[in-house]
Every structure is written in structure tokens, then in C-alpha cells.
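PROTOCOL LOG
Step 1. Enter all chains and additional molecules of the complex.
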Amino acid sequence: MAAPPGPESIALLERFVAALKAQGVVTEEEIAEQIARTDRASPEIGARMVARAWTDPAYRELLLRDGSAAAEQMGVSMAGAPPLGVLEDTDTLHHLVVCTLCSCYPRMVLGYPPHWYKSAAYRARAVRDPRGVLAEWGTVLPDGMELRVVDSTADYRWMVLPQRPAGTEGWDETRLASLVTRDALVGVTLPMVAERAAA
Amino acid sequence: MRFAAGTPVRVKRDFPELRGPCHIRTPHYLRGLDGVVERPLGAFPNPEDLAFARPAPRVPLYHVRFAQPGLFNEGAAGDTLLVEIFEHWLEPREDA
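Step 2. Run joint prediction.
Step 3. Record the structure below.
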């Protein structure tokens, strides 16, 4: 876990931002808008997209073909954002997203990445021992399921479309979305129906 | 676009980091390894130029699939890795 930034780091950031502004690279307003946009985003957006894909075949097709367009349909402005790609889990394939080089994450639809996603340990181990990492999250894949690690290295941002859990027949989108957690949207966990809720 | 989906490719075994300042989006652990193009992802300004404020021509980007156990000689048979790699880092595999 990273320590809180010290005074030197904050002073360095202030000098860096001042230099960017002096060079005309960014304005104060653009920085504020970007921060506000990320503050507004949260995993609830991604969860709603997944729940809609589970219930609406046309939306599912759009989501897998053009994640950015699917996000726009949910009212998310993708202007200036990297393209969003969505990868579909199946009975035989599970996706796990990592960024080994830095911390690329679909912030437009998931908000800020959690600390563990940015940690050197997760970034190193997700590509080297992905099943070990999943086991520590309590995620055990069935025999015969391929685990596909997605190292997010360039211009896309990747989100997972998990499988709809059994026992959710007849559920509406809101109730389905409540099953889809932040962690399931990058594949470290699976959407689960709680025993009591299913009973 | 040089490579269609399904094309066997090899990541160049090159380390520009040894030659001077650079910004490379091809992870070290993949250099020199064999993969298969999963699908083209379009073309994007070359981040190696963007990072230094140079004119950045668009370069085709691909999703390339690798066998996960081959990366570190550990892992489960059948598991895979999918990575975005720019075209100038890929070469066709003559032996494939």
C-alpha cells in the first residue's frame, strides 16, 4: 500500500501542473472537469451495463462490439476517453484484467481503480500466477475453464462481461446489477447469488 | 494493417531501454515470445513518439494471444494471455 504523498511529492505535482498550464497543455478548468468526471463514475455504471446486457440481447451485442457506444447509451460521456472494450466470459472462458505497465483501468465506467489494482504485487502476479491470485480472492474456476489474463498495455480500456449467475431467472435489471461488484468487472471475483437471497 | 486475425507472430526481442530514454508499451516479459493475433484493434498514435511530444503517426494495434504457461514456465496448461501490441513490435513467424 502506497504511503500518503509527502510535502515533496505535493510540491513536485504543483510545479508540474504549473508547467503544463504555462505551456498551454491544460487549463485549470480541464483538470477540474476531468476530476469531476472521474468522481462521478463508479462501478455502479459498469454493473448497470452488465445487467442490461444480461436482459437485452441487442444491448449485449452493442456492448461487445463497441463498449464506448454502449457506455454512451447509459448516459456516460466518452468524449476524449480511451475506447472501451468489453470481453465476454463464457462456460469455458474467464477473463482477468490487469495493467502490468501502470494502472490502466476503465475509469469512465468503474471510477477510480482500487489500491490493490495499482499494487506491484497484483500487477506482477496476475500474469505469472493468475490462478493463485484468483484463489486468494476465493475465486475458483471450474475444471476445464480457460483463464485468459488481459494485460491492458495500450489505448483500450477493458471491462469484463461476467456470466449471469444461475438462480436469477426473472430478476429485473436493478436486482441483477446489485450482484455485479467492482471486482467482478475486472474478473477477480464472480457475481454470486447469496444463499439466503436465492432461498 | 499487416496481420489478420489468426496470424502467428513473434514479439521483437529488442530492448530500446538499453539505448536511451524511451516510452515503450510492450511489456519486457513478452519480448521474443511467440503469440497469435486475436484481432486488429485499429490504429493509434505511436505512444513512443507521443511521450516525447514528437509527431506521432498512427500505428496499427493488435490484441495478441499467448499461452500463459510459456511466459514464466509456470501456470496451468490451456490458460492464455491477451495483450495490446503495436505492429512495429511484431514480426511474422516463418516457422509457424
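Step 4. Note key features.
The mean pLDDT of chain B is 96.
The CA atoms of residues 8 and 94 of chain B lie 9 Å apart.
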